[in-house]
Every structure is written in C-alpha cells, then in structure tokens.
C-alpha cells in the first residue's frame, strides 16, 4: 500500500510540474537595415503619367530583376525590350530604343491646339501652288532670256522650285506629325556604390542625328535641338547623391512642352544588412509545492 501511494504521489507531482514548464530559449527575428538598391526602365509624369516600368527593389540585398516589352499606357512612346536589375551596391537598367510618336501629343491634348496651325500651313502651301500656276506663264516671258548659255530658268521653275515650296511643305508635314519627333537608340544606366554612368547610343531629332555631349549631368543645347528647342528639353547622364545616402544615375530625361516628363533607364545604388535581433522570452515561473489529502504512513 505504501509503495502504491508513493508511486501515485510521484506521478501527480510530475504532471503538475509539467504543466508549469516554460521553454527558455532564444527566438530570433530578422530585420533589414539600410536603404536598398533599385532600378526601373521608364516612367512618365505630367499629362500622361506612368509608373516606373519595370521596377525592382532589392530589399534583402540579393539580386532581383524584371523585364517588359512595351508600355502599359499606349501612345506615350514606342519602346523596345526594357530590363531592370538591383542588388546590394549595384543596379542596372536598359531600354532597347525609344520613339516619341504621334499618339504622344494626341493623348496629351496638344495636337488639338496645333490643329489650326497645321490647317493654316497647308492652306498657305496650297495657295502658293495656285499662284505659281497662274504666274508661271507671265514670268516665263519675263525671265525666259536668263541663262541663255545654259538651259533657261523659267518663272514657273523659279517659283515652284523645291527650294521654295519644299521646306514649307516639310514644315507642314512636321507640324502634322509632331509626335514623331524623337528617335533614341539603346539607353543604359548602371551604378556601383557611389559611381555610375548613363549612356545613350544615339538621338535623332526630326530624322537628323545629334551630337551627344559626354560626361555627367549633360543637356542638349538649343543649337543641338534646333527647331525643337521650344518644344523639347533633353538631359543625359544625370547623376545624383540622394539625402538617404543612395546614388542615382538616370540615363535620359525628356520634357515635352513642359507638360510631359519622361525618364528612361534609372539605377539607384544602396546597401542593406540583415540584422538578427533576439526576441525576449519570459522566465519560467517558480515551482509551487503540491498539496495532497492522502496521508502518508509507513
């Protein structure tokens, strides 16, 4: 009997003690400290906003990448393949090509404002063509003796010459298709730590190539922009050290009439560290004596 009571008491005490056991250990949680690297292919603000596409951020310092073809907002621009990659202290972005199209101004509502100018230009060209037809005969008699040693230059030839009407018609055509004003070749941006570079392979304005400046934080001069100077601003290889300690390279920035701002290929370099912080666990309560009504004899 004595042995049975001792066994029962021992088992009861064991169960009671087990109910109050708390595991004392080191639970941990991970947090990232610092500012991550990031990159995007193209973005726009103003009358035609578009979020950075594609956009990547390396929150844990490991390499992350994304790519896209085309834009989620048609009519902003025609672009080729877009890539973006970011990791600790390194980021890259690239766009195969960029073409500003007629849809750009149409979507912005600017083509409506230009419509009277285009109509007037076309009417002027048509009127000049009619005038040359009417005056051609009279001027032929007047100027027929010019250049007797060579084929004579007639009045009709003079007034209807491509050197007179050609540029005017070209101006009309340009205004009518003003959206097709810029073609940009491959655009890339890359940074490592606090250094980097943005590159633009080529830029054509109204079909003509433009000499591009070299070095950081460049812009096309009004002379380089030519007739597009009142319409377009172009910045190349913009480099910025940000307030949070990161470093950003944006390869190309386009501003159309102060109404549409487009940024192409941007890379930002930052750094994050994964810090492990132990989580405190409450201490186990002190054991309490177990009371029993069973008398112990023996």
Automatic annotation (TrEMBL):
Q: Which UniProt keywords apply?
A: Signal
Q: Does the keyword Signal apply?
A: yes
Secretion signal: which residues? 1-18
Q: Which organism is it from?
A: Nocardioides jejuensis
What protein name is recorded for this chain? Choice-of-anchor G family protein
